[in-house]
Amino acid sequence: MTALNVNDYLKSHMRTVPDWPAPGVQFRDITPLLQDPRVFRVLIDAFVHRYMDPALRPDVVAGLDARGFILGSVIAYELGLGFVPIRKKGKLPFTTVEETYELEYGSATVELHTDAVKPGQRVLLIDDLIATGGTMMAGKKLLEKLGATVMEGAAIVDLPELGGSDKLRQGGLQLFTLVAFEGH
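The chain above was modelled as a monomer; its predicted structure follows.
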């Protein structure tokens, strides 16, 4: 990995699937990053090294269903922190709070256990990708309903032309992403 920086290295290991799930869509597939142990280590280390900094260190890591679970749980483990899953509606067995958000084709709802975080906790909110920003904003609102502070939203990929990262920043969320894909 001499000439490539981490971001370019990770981008070079992602797969673009044309016309999926619909014609004209360029799907940015992160699964190759997870399949190769060396690439997976570079990916996780990029996040872990950032959040080891005392100024950026969270109290807990929250991951968005479902790929945010993969990243978030490993990052939490590496940092010696707890992990909180933010699930799709109907998946959590205990008392929950919920947040509904708009999608391009309708709406969706995510839930969080009412005892998942404590008031005042600093939370790192993580997902695989930022597209329209709806899921991450819903996760932020859920955590804030319980009194936590979302200190940063993190993702592997930003798709800036879909407007999600701008919307999240305008909503007061600091963002950290590793790879940006411009254009379709």
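The chain has a mean pLDDT of 95.
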